[in-house]
Amino acid sequence: MTDQQTGAAAGDDAGRRSPLHDEHVALGANLTTFGGWLMPLRYTSDLAEHRAVREAAGLFDLSHMGEIEVAGPQAAAALDHALVGNLSAVAPGRARYTMICQEDGAVLDDLVVYRLAQERFLVVANAGNADLVARELVARAEGFDATVTDQGAETALVAVQGPRAEEIVAGLTDPADPAAAQAVRDLRYYAAVPLALRTDTGPVDALVARTGYTGEDGFELFVPADRAADLWRTTLAAGAPLGLVPAGLSARDSLRLEAGMPLYGHELDTTTTPYEAGLGRVVKLDKVEADGSPLEFVGRAALAARRTSEPARVLVGLQGLGRRPARAGYAVVLPDAEPGGAVGESARRVGTVTSGAPSPTLGHPIALAYVTPELSAEGTRLAVDVRGRAEPVVVVPLPFYRRPQQS
């Protein structure tokens, strides 16, 4: 799942406030505007929070994400029309990563959709796009027996991510109900189950989903906004002995970059189709109507044409061979200069970095970039113009990082 940053460090008057705002202030968080919200950038250090998620667990506030319910006898059909995925094929209790596209095939947002019941779905949108997605779903559901309801204001979302996430979340269930803890342990990836979780002020009803945006095992917990602080404090206290720490958006960004996950506004936007981003698998051109005829979902014709034509650019992973990291917006050029040498005026630009940073886990710079197709093969040597200096990079497979397999 993705977000879009819309500002830098901000004061208390900038952006909408999360239901957990006071908790972040009490923890001394550095706050930033993000997708129109005032959210924690970090609590201690980016590196410490990143490492905690890779080695133990991190607790994230994701309440800036949008939650939109689509319900009714034709809810599945409405979503099949509105989105590029085949949502009618999703079983109750499961989830699917998908996208909402324009008629020209460009990405308006990437989404996670949960099927809560046969006629009830929860669409989770990125913070900066939540209002747009809600409006689009209302418009695209017209003519279907389905109701679209924006539930973002009354819903909070927190995530527990890391190798010890399962142990921590299972420990939030009632000790007198061992079946609830087992339900957490048995939950499959991209699945969700309603459970009551413990807090110091009494149980809270939660939708517990095994999803995340860090490359680690993890859970996302949807709860009523007025109970979010209770759950946050209880989770922090219960998880602290296991290494759980609060983690901000900076760590979340470096974690998702290592995992090769796209960020809306960087790898995805309204100039990009799923195919260019290497996510053509989410586009289901084979969706059909009840009579077997092709289902004409929004953007289908354009996406079908794009599928059979070579893209002008391809998203790739870049490993830095030096020490200076590439950053979003930097030019990718042919390596016609000495490594670290000046980039000449005649240097041929062949792409653009969309995200880049030093990798705390891998120990070298990494980046995502769009390049021309003939330069997208693994092992291709390129360079990035880092403030006028040619920093050498090599195309590598994605993701950069995969979590170790559990024994």
According to CATH, what is the topology of the domain at 16-65 and 155-258?
Answer: Gyrase A, domain 2
The 3D shape can be described as: globular
- Order of neighbouring strands in the sheet with most strands: 11-12-13-10-4-14
Give the low-confidence spans: 1-12
Whole-number radius of gyration? 22 Å
Q: Can you summarize the main beta sheet?
A: 6 strands, mixed
Average residue pLDDT: 94
InterPro entries: GcvT, GcvT/YgfZ/DmdA, GcvT/YgfZ_C, GcvT_bac, GcvT_C, GCVT_N, TrmE/GcvT-like
Enzyme class: transferase
Organism: Cellulosimicrobium composti
EC number: 2.1.2.10
Keywords:
single chain, 407 residues, alpha+beta, Gyrase A, domain 2, Elongation Factor Tu (Ef-tu), domain 3, six-stranded mixed beta sheet, six-stranded antiparallel beta barrel, 20 strands, globular, disordered N terminus
What would you say this structure looks like, in words?
One of its GO terms (biological process) is methylation. Its EC number is 2.1.2.10. The glycine cleavage system is composed of four proteins: P, T, L and H. The glycine cleavage system catalyzes the degradation of glycine. With 407 residues, the protein is α+β, with helices and mostly antiparallel strands. Among the domains are: 16-65 and 155-258, 2-Layer Sandwich (Gyrase A, domain 2), CATH 3.30.1360.120; 310-407, Elongation Factor Tu (Ef-tu), domain 3, CATH 2.40.30.110. It has 9 helices and 20 strands. It has helices at 21-26, 46-55, 75-82, 130-140, 165-170, 178-186, 228-239, 249-258, 300-307; strands at 16-17, 30-34, 37-42, 57-61, 66-71, 95-101, 107-117, 120-125, 147-150, 155-161, 192-197, 204-209, 218-224, 244-246, 314-320, 331-333, 349-358, 365-371, 381-386, 389-396. The strands form 4 sheets. The chain has a 6-stranded mixed sheet, sandwiched between helices. The protein has a 6-stranded antiparallel beta barrel with strand order 15-18-17-16-19-20. A hairpin with a 2-residue loop joins strand 2 (30-34) and strand 3. Helix 2 (46-55) crosses helix 8. It is globular, with a radius of gyration of 22 Å. The model is unreliable at 1-12 (pLDDT under 50).
